[in-house]
Design a protein that fits this description.
Layout: H1 2-55, E1 59-61, H2 67-80, E2 86-90, E3 97-100, E4 108-112, H3 113-118, H4 121-136, H5 139-165, H6 168-219, H7 222-236, H8 242-246, H9 274-285
Parallel strand pairs: 2-4
Antiparallel strand pairs: 1-2, 3-4
Helix pairs in contact: 1-5, 1-6, 2-4, 4-6, 4-7, 5-6, 6-7, 6-9, 7-9
Length: 288
């Protein structure tokens, strides 16, 4: 059901992109929107992992640089039947982790130094199992595509605003578009980016629940992952992660949203409530 829901939401988002293009530029606008989507999705497929790792200044490590983290990931990858991903460390006091890569053969997982400092081995295994579940479900690619399409919609809306500012909308009206067409375009400029953000949020939340369930299965300790989430939620309210603040479009990758509760971005969180995630993991542990 999660896979079907994600597929449908991505289809709706793609359709929204084409509708925006048509509303703002007619048939030509639709073609332009489709071209933007193709180019941006091609870029996200091939380069999203390297871009994200660079944004977070992640450093690749081996068994000698981070023996515990590397061994935990190696053991979990074997249990999940996955190829060994590249392992990275992000030097940040904010405890968090993420996975990236277009498929299991080109995947990478990363953990912050803050996360490794506060978690026990079992809790660390729960978190990394969650990230490997994202790899196994190919959520890393799905999230990149959703973020890219949402970005393309926002870009088109921004282009339309500049066009209206310089009077291109008036020219379209003179050519027969009419006030109704112009009003529809103005509404689309405002509504479409918001709708795209909400769809992207729904996709990400659905994938987080699925990754929690699979991660608990792989590590074998649902309560360890639940305890880790509880610690991460508490600590992320007390620490600052400048990379996430600077690149909020990447926060869907992180196991816990690092943006503070007072932030406007928190209202459009790509993560479900941590309390609900913990409740589901506890129910899984106790067979409810």
């Amino acid at each position: 059901m999660n896979t079907l829901r994600t597929t449908l939401l991505l289809a709706v988002m793609t359709g929204l992109l084409l509708v925006v293009g048509q509303a703002l530029g007619g048939q030509t606008g639709m073609v332009v929107a489709l071209g933007i989507a193709v180019v941006m999705n091609f870029g996200s497929y091939w380069f999203s992992d390297s871009l994200v790792l660079k944004m977070y200044q992640a450093q690749e490590v081996g068994p000698s640089e981070a023996p515990l983290l590397y061994q935990v990931v190696q053991d979990l990858a074997g249990r999940a039947g996955l190829p060994m991903p590249r392992v990275y460390v992000v030097h940040s006091d904010a405890p968090n982790a993420f996975a990236t890569g277009r498929n299991p053969e080109h995947a990478a997982v990363a953990a912050t130094t803050g996360l490794m400092r506060i978690l026990s081995r079992d809790e660390l295994a729960g978190v990394m199992a969650h990230e490997l579940a994202h790899v196994q479900h190919r959520d890393t690619l799905t999230g990149a595509i959703a973020a890219t399409i949402a970005g393309a919609i926002a870009m088109l809306a921004n282009m339309a605003q500049w066009a209206a500012l310089f009077g291109l909308g008036r020219r379209d009206e003179e050519e027969g578009g009419g006030a109704g067409g112009l009003l529809g375009a103005l509404v689309m400029m405002i509504v479409a980016p918001l709708a795209a953000s909400l769809i992207r949020m729904a996709i990400s939340r659905s994938r987080e629940y699925a990754a929690d369930a699979r991660g608990a299965e792989v590590c074998g300790h649902p309560l360890a992952l639940a305890n880790a989430l509880r610690k991460l939620e508490q600590m992320n309210q007390q620490t600052y992660m400048p990379e996430a603040e600077s690149h909020p479009a990447t926060t869907h990758l992180l196991i816990i949203n690092p943006l503070k509760g007072a932030s406007l971005a928190r209202l459009f969180s790509t993560h479900p409530a941590t309390e609900e995630r913990i409740r589901r993991l506890e129910a899984l542990a106790y067979g409810r």
